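User: Here's a chain of 274 residues. Predict its fold as tokens.
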Amino acid sequence: MPDSRLVWSERSGLTPAADRRPDEPAVVDSWLVAEGRVRDLPLHGQRFLRACADLVPELPPATVHRFLEAVRLWLPPRGRWFPRIEAYGDPEPRLALWARTAPAPGAGEVRLWIPPDPDPRTRPAVKGPDLRVLAALRERAKAVGADDAVLYESGGTVLETAHSALVWWRGDELCVPDAGLSVLPSVTRTHLERLAECWRFAVRQEKADLSELPGLETWTLNALHGLRPVRAWIGADGRPAPAKVTARAADWRRAVRHRAVLPAFNLWELPCAH
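Assistant: Prediction complete.
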């Protein structure tokens, strides 16, 4: 059933949830399913496994692995879906699936709002703990005519947006946030970096100041919308400024979109023991 919540157990598998208003999950992950095809599903599963090991250690990795395999078998072969997997901690550690239909495809470009304050997240490297904070930021962005809000450090170093990774171009170099910065491990950004290597483009890690990006071709990346170029920047005062946009994004966007595949059996991998 569309937009239903399912809980998982070793004994019963995925079954309808009795609680229609669950507690806030500790960890979440989500991806687009279109006519049964998914992009980079193993990477989403591995990110979820790592986050669960960090925030919900009461759930053994093997248990999370079996839950992920149940989710893979659930994935609908028809239609557009945006399922969300969830892990809950104390007092009742559990795993769940929010079976959501996907929203209609959005515009191919985005407008980004630069809020007056730096990144408010408490756990930026994990998807889940800051959901409410990020949702509130996006609502503020929408109120000034933007699609999302930019996250940056107190010194002005750009990180990402409330709901997407950010990359930018310097000539023919694809630039990504430095590995030491507090950003969510982006599945779509990983995909784009691999594509850049296949196409023999250099990938450069760096710390870029927020003031630089309006002069650079910049893209947002997420599992739902794929790749979208930034077409306008909106300052904290609500005034829009044009962004640098080129024809380059069209080919890359098509390449990312067309790399969705039918999920294969046993595609999840347990994290390595360290």
